[in-house]
Specification:
alpha/beta, Rossmann fold, seven-stranded parallel β-sheet, 14% strand, binds NADP nicotinamide-adenine-dinucleotide phosphate
Length: 252
């Protein structure tokens, strides 16, 4: 992580799960991390838990569905820390409903966060990199295994479509970057089941303990973090496009 020590990473969705673990790892590695989520209280708890490292964590309450809040988030990062060197589009969510019983509001929310906010944050990050002369910027999308296949449980169908969009957008952005910011890189990380509150939140009961994690050893947040750190540590001439990682015990 030497290249990015002291430099600035923006990470979305850091109040829990993979995003929270990414904050801890990057801050510990000496990167200055600006993270956002809606839950201000959880952000403050995370900041305090960083102890003497907390000066390297800028916690910003931001609803990624709100364009003005996203703009304000990036403006604050640039005002306080001068630039953006890394963007990790991590925030994402799903609802427990199929295509036949889901609501328009649920679909709009998933599309807004999983696709539109990811595009908007990427646009703002790349603009900032261009304006501030960052030539080795790195964009990482936390995608999903379900962006690579058609999941059997119907409750994942719309979510899966949003993650297929992320896969398409990764390649489209790579092509755009190759013309406008040729030495910047973009990758996706596509995990299978990770032990976070994601599925419990999807069912509307974030605090519940799910049996699936006792039946099978799922990926841990640290496994995803290690993959992200590996990407950031690769030499500048290496562009890893997508990393698909699954729990070994996963059979489907
Ligand atoms: N867990 C899995 O099995 C799994 C597998 C494959 C891919 N993924 C992907 O991994 C990423 C992280 O998920 P996770 O498992 O770590 O779940 P998580 O613990 O539920 O984290 C999701 C994060 O997104 C944030 N978020 C949601 N809506 C937001 C909004 N409108 N504005 C700002 N932040 C928002 C949440 O914060 P607030 O609620 O505080 O806003 C939270 O910090 C997602 O993109 C997910 O699709 C997860």
């Amino acid at each position: 992580m030497e290249r990015y020590r002291g430099r600035v990473a923006v990470i979305t969705g850091v109040s829990s799960g993979i995003g929270e673990a990414l904050v801890r790892a990057l801050v510990q590695a000496g990167v200055r991390v600006a993270g956002c989520a809606r839950s201000s209280e959880k952000l403050q708890t995370l900041k305090q838990s960083l102890g003497t490292d907390q000066a390297r964590f800028l916690a910003v309450t931001c609803d990624l569905a709100q364009e003005d809040q996203v703009r304000a988030f990036f403006s604050q990062v640039v005002a306080e820390w001068g630039s953006v060197d890394i963007l990790i589009n991590n925030a994402g969510l799903a609802f427990n409903s199929s295509l036949l019983d889901g609501t328009v509001e649920e679909w709009r929310t998933m599309a807004n966060i999983n696709i539109v906010a990811l595009c908007f944050c990427t646009q703002l990050a790349v603009q900032t990199m261009q304006e501030t002369g960052v030539t080795d910027g790195y964009i990482i999308h936390i995608n999903s295994e379900s962006g690579h296949m058609h999941p059997v449980p119907s409750k994942f169908h719309f979510y899966s479509a949003t993650k297929h969009a992320v896969r398409a957008l990764t390649e489209s952005m790579r092509l755009e970057l190759s013309k406008t910011l040729p030495s910047a890189r973009i990758s996706s990380v596509s995990p299978g089941l990770v032990e976070t509150q994601f599925l419990a939140k999807m069912s509307g009961r974030p605090e519940q303990q799910l049996n699936v994690f006792t039946r099978m050893k799922a990926l841990q947040v640290e496994d995803v973090v290690e993959t992200v750190v590996h990407l950031l540590e690769t030499p500048l001439h290496v562009q890893i496009h997508d990393v698909l990682l699954r729990p070994t015990a996963q059979t489907s």
